[in-house]
Amino acid sequence: MTAIREPTDEQRMLRDMVRAFAREEVAPLARTIDREERFPTESWVRGAELGLLGMAAPEAYGGTGLGLTERCIVGEELSAVCVSTAATILHQADLVVPRLVRHGTPDQQARWLPGLCDGSIIGCLAMTEPEAGSDVMSMRTRATRTGTGWVLDGAKTFITSAPVADLALVYACTGPHGSRELGLFAVECDREGITRGRTFHKMGWHGSPTGELVLDSCEVPEENLIGARDEGRAIMFAGLNSERVVMAAECVGLAQGALDAALAYARQRRQFGRPIGDFQLIQGKLATMYTEIEACRALVAQCATAADAGREHELTLQSAACKLFGADMAMRASTEAVQILGGYGYTDEFPVERFMRDAKLMQIGGGTSEIQQHVIARGLLRRSPGASG
Predict the structure, then answer these.
(1) Residue 77 has pLDDT above 80, yes or no
(2) Annotated catalytic, 243?
(3) Rounded Cα–Cα distance for residues 386 and 83 (Å)
């Protein structure tokens, strides 16, 4: 693996800026958007002004041309106060924008990237289907070629930002029935033939709207096909490693937020005549939380450094391990934080119950923990004996 580099001055400045934004503007809204289950409009607009939505895009289109390390910094700092806001911003910045940057034509980039970067276009990535979750290659949405383009039919579910999206990047089967040939299509959500289905009311991530998209004889022109008709599968897998690493960074931030809340409570809450932080059982929980957070932060930094050095395609095992460890670590940390706060931790007067609800999705979304275990084990078994790293 690539050695972790010291942060640059620009990366330190970015962290300071996003941390101030998170604490001063995002945190005061976190409880409200969780209760109201609404899109974090205020933070979205401000995040766009700060250049967070277009981090992966070239400056020519309104982006800032930053790498995976910077996206991880943003994900960590925002998740320390509100995972919903982090997930909403990073869905655009790490999933939607990079696919157009890497695989879109100059015309497609000029058409959509400026709006995606300035926030006037909300994008979503439509991959999951009712019968194709972990088994993503079983998707049934089909794209049939016409004289002037394509007709899409199918349904997508559990799609982040679908209830509010203006543009959906939709994966669909383009080959014969039974083939694994996929294409990726940019579909404007006001186009005839695409409708929004249910909006899901979830355990957590209340400020990150999730819903369904239904495609019924939805016609899209040829110029809306991103890449070649059979490149969708390669495009999909090319983005998985960065998605896993960014989600692990969000796990680090979530867990850090839970630790900060637990530390503050352990210092001021008194029982038996002294702060509960004086008791060894509480100290043990805090020490374990800190240790696991630091370990995951280092793994995220290592993966991000390698990706920014042009080795993202080599990170399948490491990124899966990063996501697996991060998700389970965040669940443990948030659960321990609730335990440390006791009855107060079970109420919404403190953020730890929200952190605990939000952490659970980290073990499900972006590939379940079981899928990450499968990816890791399969990769290990295919390696030559004695191989490492």
Answers:
(1) yes
(2) yes
(3) 40
